[in-house]
Amino acid sequence: MHSSTIIASIIVLITIVAKHSSVATHDSYSQALRRRTHAYNYGKNQQRNMFLRRLAQQLVEDEDSDENLRSAAWKRDDSASGIVSSSVYGGAGGNPYTDANIFGNSKIFVPKTIHMVQAKYVTGTSVGIGSLQTTYQMFDGTTADGAKFGVGQNTATSSDATDCGSFNLNPNEYIVKVTGGAKAFVYWLQFTTNLGRQSDMCGTQDGDAFTVEQPGYVLSYFAGNAGKVLNTIQFYWVKLPACLSSPCQNGGACNTVDGSCTCKGQTSGPTCSTCGCQNGGTCSATDGSCQCKGQTSGPTCSTCGCQNGGTCSATDGSCQCKGQTSGPTCSICGCQNGGTCSATDGSCQCKGQTSGPTCSTCGCKNGGTCSAKDGSCTCKGQTSGPTCSTCGCQNSGTCSAADGSCKCVGIWTGSTCGSPPPCAEPYCCTDSCSFCTYTGPNQYFNHGIGPGGDLQPGALAYCRRGRGSNFDWMNNNRGAYVLYPTNNNCNLGSGIANNDYSFSGLYATYPSRAVVAGVC
């Protein structure tokens, strides 16, 4: 029985006694008798009043003591940070219960499974919560079963109670709201989680409806009074560690003592959401390690595998090539004619006589070409030198800009313009001494002056038209041209004028110096 009911009853009793003592008497007793009677009654009334006051005081003290015991039973042994209690819902009776210290002091825990049974307590009343039992879980995964509160059996009928089943919570799922009804006892309960799930309602929707929730908190445990049924219930709420309300990412571990995240790999920040991978690399959702992209590697994807001065893209790690390089790693060099790509900036380092961005400009002259191997000049015609600019044509001949061949001038012929024209008419039929190339059969100067010897085909000689009447006579008055060895330089002397010669066929040999070689 609550103290308020007892106190009210005592007050009513005191009031009745006081009123009765104040009623005037109309007896025919004498005034003295009335005074004695009044004094006697006053004393008796005072004794009654004192007794009733002491009784009321004792009951109040006993009730306070019971409430203190109940509060002590509901209270956790430690003052865990963030614990908030709700109002008490229900009626009277039953014994105190609590799951506060199921894991010991300073432990934060939440329900993992809630099991309820509905039953009828008193005939004529609604079905209510017959029993409540909870399996709790700490944030390190440790679990423990709480006590069973209430009998969980019908006490007013012979029929069996109804099992409402178990409400199982998933990982990272917590109860954030409780709805129910209570008055004489707890009639019904229903739970809602942070994921929006609801348990089946257990009990009968009777009594005074209530909704309990604590923004930013989740349900931790229950307390109250229970006997044959759940007489009262109180809800205790706990603020989740920061790393549980905002879970650690990328494999980070939650420290449930201080709520911080212990990050892995290259992650950092309050929830390990900051990824330290570079060049477009991403953090593994499992262990926080870097998953590199493109040509990057290393713990933070900071190692760039691009060659020849190429750089890795900060977006996707692909190579951004420089100079004349290309390819996935910038290893393909586009320099020509033996040129190589700079390891610093990818520009072409040309060889030989090549130049230009890709070494495709060839500096060889006179038709010379650049070697595809080393860029050196491969000269043509009569050219030579590093750039084929040296011309080997003789006697004022020039090298062709197209193919390096000799363009001869004057009388000169041959690949280098070093050969005179053949010793033949009309070239030799002049009065001047001309240099020529002998093309006839071998001749011998019988009385050679100087080196003498054979006059062979291809040999160099001098020629001019012969002088004297005998030549004119021998050659049908057309005259003849005469060959002279190169050491004579058309020095005829005086013999020809005096007909000092012999004649055999076309060629007439002047004994000492010359050969009559043809007609003019």
From TrEMBL:
Does Oxidoreductase appear among the keywords?
Answer: no
Signal peptide from the UniProt entry: 1-24
Q: What range(s) does the Jacalin-type lectin domain occupy?
A: 83-239
Task: Read off the PROSITE patterns from this record.
Answer: EGF_1, EGF_3, JACALIN_LECTIN
The lineage's top-level taxon is: Eukaryota
Q: Which residues form the EGF-like domain?
A: 239-273, 297-331
Cystine bridges: 263-272, 321-330
Enumerate the UniProt keywords alphabetically.
Answer: Disulfide bond, EGF-like domain, Repeat, Signal
Query: What Pfam families does its record include?
Result: Jacalin (PF01419)
Quote the protein name from its UniProt record: Uncharacterized protein
In its UniProt entry, the species of origin is given as Adineta steineri
